[in-house]
Write a structure and sequence with these properties.
The chain is of the alpha/beta class. The protein is built from 3 helices and 20 strands. A hairpin with a 2-residue loop joins strand 19 and strand 20. The relative contact order is 0.12.
């Protein structure tokens, strides 16, 4: 999985990692959003890295945590879900709206192949100064360029250019900003 190759999600080591992460997410989500020191301690255990003055509101859910890096002064609103079977890199000064989903894993299209349990994951990158509005979904392998704004409810299936207003399902670049 870490080598960006097909993996078995049911591998005992991965199952143990996800269990650890669920316990940490439970602790985080049980801690009040105003209790910053307690939240910072849990987030420090949960994520790969987090920059100064970054805030992650509960509820928050992820698969592994250690594959997520978040830059400085970023904000993740209520109800974010990050499925981080591959790396998720969130830049500085990023705003992520409520209910956003960053999804790195994918499954085979063929049902017989899906039954094998093999999955593949591709990294997601959000550049600096990106704004994902409410309920945006970013799919595997997508890079959103610096300063891009992704409109509410968009499904981002491919890379989006820097400093553009983008929206739709599938998301497309509308105009420079």
């Amino acid at each position: 999985m870490l080598a960006d190759e097909p993996y078995l999600a049911g591998d005992p080591e991965l199952v143990a990692d996800r269990h650890r992460t669920r316990l940490l997410c439970d602790r985080l989500n049980a801690t009040g959003n105003a209790d910053l020191s307690a939240r910072d301690a849990v987030i420090g255990e949960l994520l790969g890295s987090i920059g100064d003055q970054t805030e992650v509101l509960s509820p928050f859910h992820c698969d592994y945590g250690y594959q997520i890096t978040i830059g400085a002064r970023s904000f993740i609103n209520f109800g974010a879900v990050i499925l981080d079977s591959a790396s998720v890199r969130i830049g500085d000064d990023v705003q992520i709206g409520p209910g956003a989903q960053l999804i790195t894993p994918t499954h085979p299209l063929d049902a017989a192949q899906r039954r094998t349990g093999l999955e593949l994951a591709s990294p997601i990158v959000l550049g600096d100064d990106v704004w994902l509005a409410a309920r945006v979904t970013v799919l595997p392998g997508v890079t959103v360029g610096d300063g891009a704004v992704i409109g509410a409810g968009s499904v981002v299936t491919r890379d989006m250019p820097a400093r553009h207003l983008c929206f739709g399902s599938p998301c497309r670049a509308i105009r420079p900003i």
